[in-house]
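Minimal example, chain plus ribulose-5-phosphate.
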Amino acid sequence: MKTTKPIKAEKKLQPNNTEKKPSIQASHEAHNDQQNHTADTPVADAGSVSASGNDNRKVSREDIELVQNLIERCLQLYMNKDEVVKTLLNRARIDPGFTTLVWQKLEEENADFFRAYYIRLKLKKQIILFNHLLEHQYHLMKYPVPPKVPLAPMQNGISTMPVNNLPMGYPVLQQPSVPAAGQPHLDPMGMSSCHVVNGVPAPGNYHPMRMNSGNDMVIDTSVSDVAAAVPPGNAMSDMAVSPTSVASSGHFPFTASEISGMGVDTSALDAAFPSDVASSVGLQLPPDSGVGNSRDSLRSLAQIPWNFSLSDLTADLSNLGDLGPLGNYPGSAYLPSDSDILLDSPEQDDIGESFYFLAHRMSTEKRDTTTIYASAGLLIERRILRPQVTKMVKAIIAPSMLSSDFANLASEAERMLNCGADWLHMDIMLLTGRSDVQVKFWFHFVPNLTLGAPIIESLRKHTKAYLDCHLMVTNPLDYVEPLGKAGASGFTFHVEASRDNWQELVQKIKSKGMKPGVSLKPGTPIEEVYPLLDGENSVELVLVMTVEPGFGGQKFMPEMMDKVRTLRKKYPSLDIEVDGGLGPSTIEAATSAGANCIVAGSSVFGAPDPAQVITLLRVSVEEAQKRS
Ligand SMILES: O=C(CO)[C@H](O)[C@H](O)COP(=O)(O)O
């Protein structure tokens, strides 16, 4: 944002002034001053006012409070002092010297908090390093000779060439392909294993695991996809929480006791990881957590309360009598708006923008600081969380094989994958026999018959693709075992057909290594699926039918979008699939309501260029996500 002319905020209050609530008075003055500007005095734009006042203004308690609050926000992101100083300079134009002094004062007043905080920072760094080493080691073992081949184009985790062709240093797959149940991952190098790590099969007994450092998605961009790379359903993925949620829950994803319980030998890390976090900020760590003694430091971490939160940071600097050098800080807390020493930190744009916004509002508006802080804080959290949400719910385009040439299923599947399909949607419509009644009844969930486990099994021999099976049967439980064996990847049953046994069903589906999903017919209210999403044994996908199930080529029902909207609002990271009548003319309605998995049959198979339609559907999901 550009400043036209700095507004003169005459702040008479000195930090040593003992008057109560001086910041509000200063704020009023600044506000009134703004109002007095006339047309011949260009008013600075919304984002630049606070930062531009470097006209011999002395620091006020309000400034201190502002910087303290900004530092607290940074602490929630597990930034170290240098990062905090840079962020505040870069985005709120706070003088580094001033930030440093506030930090020091906070540290003095909150020694216990900072002691625990620095240890967490150190642990964070160790975890990041550990993950890097592990990943490197894995690649060394998996790809001993780096072949000179170009990088394969990625299609949401599905590589179009064998994984052993990937050169060294190939990034971990962004979205892991879920292993098909009972489907051994045959490796062209001769290794066979069902164990899949980061979307690729792990050889032999080697089981790399990932630790989550809690904030790698935001701060350390080099490992920004760590959370996304953890396979769905993996216990680790549950720990891939946002930095803000880490902070607000007050629980670091990996506690010391959890780490020591893993039998991790940290001695190797000691050499590689200097204890620079604490030393860079001048902290005297207790002897058992000093340099070169990570094992001990991890042990000692067990004694540290891990549930500390920012509420432990109790010092209210603006009410402290003795501010020391902070109180006599010469000049303004802010740098001039045209200062050219601003650092570039593009990866933190979102955070920074919010800080800037926060800084501006807190020092210019005539509002209670806490309220402003709280609302601006929300803004920060939303900005940080949003990319994470879009990361979790990727666009998934699943051509419905119901519209394919069944006589050439394997080649049709291949054709769709080559056109950019992420999943293959398999509509399973069967008669279900009931033998628990005297006369054997045959039940029909939909008035059509399609394919069953034997065909899935045959197709599995030709493709590694994710087979998204939609069970339109009256007794889905009967099909878990056979479909699991056949190599289905996802198992989506109908809520109407499983009211009595969905818990058993979900458990069984998971035990067979498939992703459980629930579908509902147009006439079924969305509330019916909530219990399946809220409990412990929850489904991982909801398929909202946008036609009456049974046949392809029907007309899309836009009124179903209310269901999608409601679901998306309630479950931001849920895979929400829509099926029926989706194509270029209807996709917008579905994606703007929040659908991210798109099943499309006739619009894709009937198109002269299916790849173009698939791309169009994908772009629509992505654009809608950007807009939301
Ligand atoms: O589940 C289905 C029918 O029950 C189909 O997957 C669905 O109708 C897709 O076909 P189209 O895109 O042609 O409507």
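The chain has three domains: 23-110+313-390, 114-301, 393-627. Residues 1-55, 147-311, 338-391 have pLDDT under 50 and may be disordered.
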